[in-house]
Amino acid sequence: MGERVEISAKESIQEEGEVMDTPERSKNNQIATSISKFEDSPVFNFLNSLSPIKPVKPIHITQTINPLSFATLPSVFTSPHVGSLRESRFLRRHQLSDPSKPEFSSDDRSTVDTNKVNVESTKQSDEQQENLNQRVSDGEVVGGPSYDCSKLVVESAEDLSYDFNSPNSGLRPSRGLKAEHVADYACNTSTLVPFVQDACQRGSYGSEVNIEGNMHVLCVVGPDEQVGEGGEPEHLSTQPGDGGEMTEIADSHDIIAGPPLDNPAEKMEYEHLSGLYRGMRRRCLVFEMAGGRRKHMDENSGSDSSALLQSDGNTSSNDQKLLMRTGNDSSRRVLPGIGLHLNALATTPKDYKIVNPDSSATGRLLIGPSSSVNFHPSPTGQELLNNILPVAPSDREIDSIDNALLPVEDACQASGYMANEEMNQNSPKKKRRRVEQAGEGEACKRCNCKKSKCLKLYCECFAAGVYCVEPCACIDCFNKPIHEDTVLATRKQIESRNPLAFAPKVIRGPDSLSETGDDSSKTPASARHKRGCNCKKSGCLKKYCECYQGGVGCSINCRCEGCKNAFGRKDGSGVIGTEVEVEDDETDMPEKSMLDRSFQKTATGNDPEQNNDSAPPATPLRAGRQSSVQLPFSSKKKPPRSSLPSTGSSSSGFYAGQGFGKPRFLPPPPKFDKHFETIREDEMPEFLQEGSPVSGIKSSSPNGKRVSPPHGAVGTSPGLRSSRKLILQSIPSFPSLTQNQ
DNA sequence: GAGTTTGAAACT
DNA sequence: CAGTTTCAAACTC
Fold this sequence. Notes:
The protein is built from 30 helices and nine strands. By secondary structure, it is mostly helical. The chain binds a DNA duplex through residues 447-452, 456-460, 494, 497, 501, 531, 533-538, 542-546, 549, 635, 637-638, 641, 701, 705-706.
């Protein structure tokens, strides 16, 4: 086959125009070779056998590419939505019934899809290859001809190159794929995996998973996702020419709709599949879903899906496992610069979850990386897997969990779970619960405002920089796209009053502080609420306390009274990593008891990060996960609202400088962002240098009164002995309304 | 699910 | 800037 492939590739090149006789040639050859190999692979054959679309061998094809295939690409960047996003920097959540979204015109898509099918039904031509090469060289993903989004979800050129050059890489130019979208790793990945699997099973959908430390999933999901159908997901559908929405799509489910299937049976299947996702909330990973669906896959395991996955070649080594992120990184789903509110991101505890430890031959693992908090310099994916696997509940377990807390407090997961539930049941009650959980994530916030019109910081959605969505029970809500102007104006006003009003409330320090030897530095205690709390009665042991809620200890900035914050008291005691005094009866607060247990566990343990070769660090969060114990914030009620993926923020470029896959294991701070990182003073932007710890100290009013939030950098308490400073790293990338306007 | 508590946000 | 009011989440029953 190799020889033939080689020949084919050459033929293609030569016959199609001799345009390759350049340095590009080798590259093209490689690509062509990869493609050819793939086409000749059993998997491909299998796919072909299932697909109504008959592949055409790479021969003398004077293919005419429908203009639509490429013409729309640029639109991605000109989409009104994109502009809107940029302008508002306000996260647009899925708008279930917002009529202001003309973008999703199924008609257009249909047209495109049709064309696409035509294109795909033939071997890609020179033109395509050229285009492909061109785009690849540009660091652009080669996507299906008509998908604008391909540009939005661009991976690095390196990644692409890797993909293409990899012999077994599933990545290939349009062939057989309805479209190829490089979804941004994270959430996309997690979201897509199920699809990939399904797609693989169906054989008619192209799907590709490339794992390379980072996970790239190219998934082509079949036919149209009906817009507006089921009352939901316009964002699930892909619409050529709508870059903005694509952004959203990527941002949300990352589900890429492919062209319509000609085969009715397949179409039905597809519809079924897509229907499953219709109920999913935007930006919520379909983690559970994956699990749920996995059951099916398990049953069919070993067959196609696994085969296909394996065929991805790149997934070798540590990558035999797909690392999937649970929504934490929704951030990743968002194009850099497109802001998600930090707070939204904040809570996102990073969650790693094994989606399918044993179901597939490859042992797919979904990991939620990222996150804002870094912990150790990137363990390899394998390591992560190893660490995670033992803890992760099986899918079945997850599936069986209904009211029980999800083992992993990932809003996204929850969402996914919800979605899964949705698929299986429609009881109002369930739905309600689902909604609640769905709202958890950063991206999935939901509010219940009655008087603020969701235009004040009281509103979690607003505060998080996201629009209110269906799950919200708000009244007179103005926090909707249709009131964008109002929202922006209000936001601006609030920011004028307090520039950091929309900034994450919790400044999370790095574990690096541990180098100081300070026990407290080994824990989330290194993180602090930027302004501190002012609790009087809760003892900082309830979520009324923003510090506690954020999973951080109280600091000198707090004006709290009788602080008993389990994450660290104002006076420095009770910090995680040190013995935590459990003064209150544990029965007082279920959450607390859990938390305390976790803490105690931690206390007895060693440095979490130091010992986690085989086990995750024993931070409360981590410990909780490890033992499948409820997280401190897990409650029968709403899961930590922010445990979501804070993704958002992460996506908002927060992690721009962070390596993907850097897992963060943090406490559960459900509500706030952890997108903070410490940077050395010398690395600190000048404008932030003012806000050194000293400034932080100064920010504390002598009389203990609340002071204006420190601007720029948020100082940590002096107690945090470190040469490093906690910086609100998100600031630069935070979508300030005052910018670019 | 309604009512209460709490503390942040907003207002004066 | 301090005090007060408003607000909505968290919590309790």
